[in-house]
Amino acid sequence: MYSEWASLQSSVLSDAGSASVLHTFPEGVGRDVACSVVRHLSHGLSHGGGEDGQKLDSEQQVNWTMEVLCYGLTLPLSDHETIRDCVNVYNDWLTVLTTPKTSVPRPILEEPNKYAQRMFKHLHNLFLPRSEGNTYVDKQVIMCHRILRTSQTIAKESPIMTQQTWEGLLLFLLGVNDTLLAPPTAQGSIADQLCDRLVSVLFEIWLVACARCFPSPPLWKTLREMCITWRHHAAMVDQWNRFNVLLTSKVLKIMYGPDFPELKIAEEDISMVPADMQNECVVQTWFRCLHVLGNPVDLSNPNVISQTPRFIHMAMISDVVIDPSHHPCLKRLPAIFLRAMKGISGLVDAFLGMSSPREIEEIDSAPTTPQVFRGSASTTPPGSRKNVRSFMPSISGKDKAEFRKSAPAILPRQPSASSVTLFSSDQHTVPSPCRPKVNSVLHLFGAWLFDAGLAGCELEPTHKRQGSFSSMGSRRSSAAFPSSSQDVAAAVDSPEYPESYESGRAEACGTLCRIFCSKRSGEEILPAYLSRFYLVLAQGLQVGRYCSREVMAKIVVNCTDLLRSDLKGVDVLLPRIVDALEIILPDRELIKFRPYVNQIELRRSAIQLLLSILCLPLHFRDLQIQDILRTHETDEQPEHNTFLSLKLRMVNLLIGSLQCEQDSDNTQMILGGMLLCVQDAALLEEAELQAAEQAEREQQNEESENAEKAADQEQKGTVDAPDHETPASKLAQGLYSEYDSAYGLFVRCIHLVCQRLMSAWKTDLNVSLAALELLSGLAKVKIVIQDVLECKRAVKWICDYIGYQCSRPPPNHSRDLHSMIVAAFHCLTVWLVEHDDLMNDKECLQHVLETVELGISGSKSKVKASDQPKYKGDKELKPASMRVKDTAEATLYVVMSQVGSFPPTSGPASLCTLLNEEAIMKYARGSTSEGSLPFRYFVLDKNIIMGILEQPLGNEQDPMPTVTVLIRTPYGRHAWTMQHRQLSWQDRLGSRSALNDPGRPVPMSDVGLHHDVTHRNFPEEVDRVPPTKADLSIPTLQQITGEKLQQELDKLRALMDVQVKYETAINVLTEKRIASTTFPNSDTECKPPKIVQEFHPSRLFLSQLGFLSLDGLKSAPNSPLPALIALDSKATTFHLDLELLDSIPVRSFDTVFVFYVKCGQKMATDILNNVEAAENVQPQFLEFLRSLGWPVEVGRHPGWTGHVSTSWKLATDDDVFDDSTPVADGTGGSLFNGDKQVLYYGDISSEVAFVVPSGSRQGNCRDQLPDKQAVDRTSTQGDAMATGPGPSRNLTLELAGVDPSPGAVGPSPDTPTCHGRKRHLPSRANMHVGPDTKVLVIWVESYDDIEDFPLEDLLSECATGMDYASSTSSLGSRPGMEAFVIFIHPLKTGLFRVNMHGPAGRVSKAIPLVDGMVVSRRALGALVRQTAINICHRRRLDTDTYQPPHIRRKIKIQEVVTKYRSQMSEPEFYTALFHDM
């Protein structure tokens, strides 16, 4: 910089201007003259008079007096009073440059600059060390301070100083500093006590001179040369850091404006830079001061520091020191080197705009006792350091205040209105968006940092550059990185690095990591910088006997973004990083790292690094990794140097780190990484096996096609036998031989997580939730289960976990504990549904049912297998909580109704039937009265509403008792059609013939002989019995007949004769008719009764189920309601309440909004328009959308569509759907904006709609929200979009207390709604089932655009219809609305970087995605979907007012029962059953 200018150092050192004429006389003569003259001048000053000074009115007199004063300043410290008087005189006379005192002689007043320059030269004598030792050093120090204060005052206040005077003042300060600071420092000497003050005054006055009279290049060169010889003083480096920070704060404002993060400066230092200093002057001064110390890396080499004339001279005259580099004062160099590196680190952070202060801590002179972080639970990042403290002499008074100063700090940036809180575990500082490019920072500081990062390292000749810092001897050699974990384990016990300069080297390495990790998306870094950076990291991450744990710790803590910043060639460091992680992560205590960094922060950074490399082995597979430290061809190469060879080591790192991790946040991050590994491996195996099978099929087709050709070629020659080893078999062998299969990792994860869940995580809410989310995710992974016993063990462990938590003492029961139990039941449900064959195992089924029983009742029927079971009626219900009981009941329902039958025939979009009363009546026979439905409604056990239709369906031909039952339970709506049958259903013809006449046999003509027999009333033996007197006691008719009676008898005989004749004639006619009638006779034939065609099937159905007993109609002892209740279906609002019940979903539902942000976009409108065309988005984005869910038509979809106005449609809604508008092709995702289609995913417990808002989104009902005034009028009113012109009514869950008026009607059927559908919407109070959690997935082309993402503007596009239903107390805003944002940035490697933002909370960190994780292309969609579901699930767990869907349906059913119960007596109830509807 100053090569063409001459230095003034020699002239400063050889200047004779500080010598006096009295030095030519004997010492006693000069002393006597000086004491007499000075005492007289000082006496006049002490009495307030200036007569003695005024008598010096000639130039000769003043010159003679100054010669005396000059000599007096050189007197021994034993004459300190004379020296003090000389100082007093010159202090008064120097006021001529500011405000002259009366004691100033007239010649000095006339030529102030001339005499001031002479006085500066004379005052140099005051600072000369004396030979008396340290007896009077304190007094000399005080006098020196006074002169330094006077110099400061003159520089700041003098308006008359010329350029020569400025140069004289600066040369005076340079000479003084060089005299005291250039020689080696002695303990307690004046140089030791004045060092900090001297350098501080020099820099302060130099800054003022730059503003008033900019120093010439020779002066700058002199300053640089002299400062280089003072570097062995810690105060010199401290003051250099101090003024660099001061000037840097000004330069940052000049370069980047006021919006750039402010560099905080101590209040007393702010005024050091003159306010009138021009910007160009500030920049020039800053750059020159930055390089005034030379290369700070020289501080790590005592040989360089000691190669000065003063050190060499001291070694030559000393009897103890032989080599200048062995001087005792150089033992401080490690601490000084560390101070210099921390100062440079602070400047780098200032340019990067780091939002966290990185202050310089107090460093002892002995670097072998580093600061130890107290306690492992502290989360203070290592960047937070103590303020610097300079060494102060033992003085008192106002001089002490001048020594005080503070270390620099950086003020955090004020977050914008649209910013959100980062809830990730990575709490590293965030660079400013306005930061300079990496190349610019490296141009400024790169040479120093690269040399410092390699300080003391012996490099290969090809790794050295011309002019670089030379190594300090053969302290280490280039070693190959170990290829196995055994080599790394052996490196843990290696001795520590013997030198003490590792702290400064570690600081430089950490600074380099922060610089390169601050790279912007698309930014290019010079290859020379990248290669040197990789060389520094490769050396710093070495293991073995040259392992430096301090350097390794600094690198790991500061390079978490290293492999996710798109640095070219960074993968060459992957083996070194894995080596370092194998030292850090499996170590539970990290004792050897404890002196350098916080253990939790170190492990967190290591886990972040691990999460960024998990997908690399399966992504690059067999790609070679070169070792940059091996340069000779003869070096031994490792056997496995591919990406795939590191797969097993990474998996072992995950397993080992989870076994010894104790921090909650770190554990959750590891669990997320484990699910990523299993999911990625499973998807890869599935895809490659499918490809192999396809290739095998193609090969078989080719062989079959070539069979005929092979037969023709048999005559010409033999045909080679084909290789029967198929591509599929080769691939399978490769998958299971090169690395662990997905199933192997699946089993290892289950075993470890379940064991840790039972042993160490039972009391940690967040870790337990994360572990259960991991187990749920593992259950959903599509993988071939080789041993069902592993799944059975997992279910057994989950049941044991629930049992342990439920059995904890009552004082331990809390909402958090119950949340863990609820989550465990949810996990159990997922396992049973995904692996339904587990229910075929008797033992597994018993465990599950016992656990469900425990959750419902609070105890098990059999604690031990040998115990007698305790029946339900004998047990006292004491569940852990109602939340646990409700969740256990839901699990029981899934076991009984869904396991083995999910998804149903209608698809996973609906767990219920899509039929309602209107849809069923379309297929029923018989006529119905207008406005009424022939359904009988009953309530069973207070929780089931059963609608019975007695009319058979139109396709039923058999006249049998048939009922169609529409059942509404807390778990959904179900439709059943049942018949009362006596015969088998297998043969419909046979069953029909059983109801017809089978016919009579054919008559036979031969009936045998006819015999005429006289029939007697009594046997013949009666006639032969002689009568007795008793027989004659009854007279005969003739004996008692008189004349009158005889006449009557004759009449009777006549009538009898007539009757006989008549009957004879009739018999003749009858015989003739019978003879003429064919057989059989229809009049006399016995026929079966006619089949009944009209029934009361509802009465038969209820009776045969046992509900019509007298006991069933009476109230139970423990319930005020009977088991069977009839409902009044003729009420005007009955069917409206049934529709409200049907509108309550049976599963939790969530919405995820997906946006695409192009590079540099900040406006919401631009972001929404990106998805209009496919050419505006990346192809990976469209593939990602398809992996989130399957597309569904909004108008026909029976599940959740992202908005309440279009969700949960029934079969009748399809009739009025208008889909005449064609669906456009070639969009960038706008097809799924919710107007026509959305992406949908549903499982057993939740359903998710993925909506891609676009600029062309129709202004339909999705954006129609009730205004504030309408909401204020009635906070519980139904949806404003479905309100008809008539009076409205409040639709709430509290329907029991509402007395509906006859004029209150529901929504008008003619009210237009979305897509022309004529259906009214449920009330918002009914639809609000939890916190209004917004989940946004943002695809960003540039990672830097995350800081400027317009979240608040885009939230208005995320309407779900429930945005204003969260609260009724503050309806003007959106209370309860929470936004979780998942940013996805595609890397150049083909992988994807994930960034998580969201409101901080107790249970916000859902997995599997973790902030900073790098995910593969095949697993991205599944992991994003699962994370979004888990986020919403956790928010519902953490919400006190949340009620699960089945509980809300249960409450609604009870309200319907209370409101519409028919108050009938038992006779009236039975009578109503016999009446038709």
Automatic annotation (TrEMBL):
The keyword Repressor does not apply. Pfam families: RALGAPB_N. SUPFAM superfamilies: Rap/Ran-GAP. Transmembrane segments: none annotated. Keywords: GTPase activation, Phosphoprotein. One of its GO terms (molecular function) is GTPase activator activity. Residues 692-727, 1255-1326 are annotated as: Disordered. GO terms for biological process: regulation of small GTPase mediated signal transduction. It comes from the Eukaryota. Coiled coil: none annotated. Residues 1138-1387 form the Rap-GAP domain. The keyword Phosphoprotein applies. PROSITE patterns: RAPGAP. Non-catalytic subunit of the heterodimeric RalGAP1 and RalGAP2 complexes which act as GTPase activators for the Ras-like small GTPases RALA and RALB. Component of the heterodimeric RalGAP1 complex with RALGAPA1 and of the heterodimeric RalGAP2 complex with RALGAPA2. Heterodimerization is required for activity. This is Ral GTPase-activating protein subunit beta.
